[in-house]
């Protein structure tokens, strides 16, 4: 995913915002932090600038920034990094989940999957790489894009990383209207022998 330079990011932010907040003394520091949260990603800048466009008062900007801080918990923690997944494996999951509809052949289903992934790559929603140990291509989401997706999907989908088996018993984590949960359990179980 191509990052913008700081100057390009600032220009895009101002273009999408429609007015220069950096010349407004009580908004300048807030606007700079908002722009920093966008991590020089064009999609994040366009999306966030659009959501701030109608805000005029400093209290609105402070409130919106607080919401942004809360909803986009971008973590530098190595354990929380976005997981890489092979393209073929991801397409198999998309077929199994019914996201890719059944077609006359498995090849047709995979063609549909590769086309979907290509569109997401072209929109800078997925980054592509090649595993070091093989020639297989993988995809992953940039952390900020992942956080935005999880924020939008959070009412009905839950993603938890690095849970222990005892964490499953905490009923406070599960909602009645939960549709799906993605769990990355990291626990070694000793063989009792």
Automatic annotation (TrEMBL):
Q: Output the SUPFAM superfamilies linked to this UniProt entry.
A: P-loop containing nucleoside triphosphate hydrolases (SSF52540)
The protein's name is: Disease resistance protein winged helix domain-containing protein
Database matches in InterPro entries:
Apaf_helical, P-loop_NTPase, Plant_NBS-LRR, WHD_DRP
Q: Name one GO biological process term.
A: defense response
Location of the Disease resistance protein winged helix domain: 83-149
- Sorted UniProt keywords: Nucleotide-binding, Plant defense, Repeat
Q: Which organism is it from?
A: Fagus sylvatica (Beechnut)
Q: Which Pfam families match?
A: WHD_DRP
MF terms from GO for this chain are: ADP binding; ATP binding
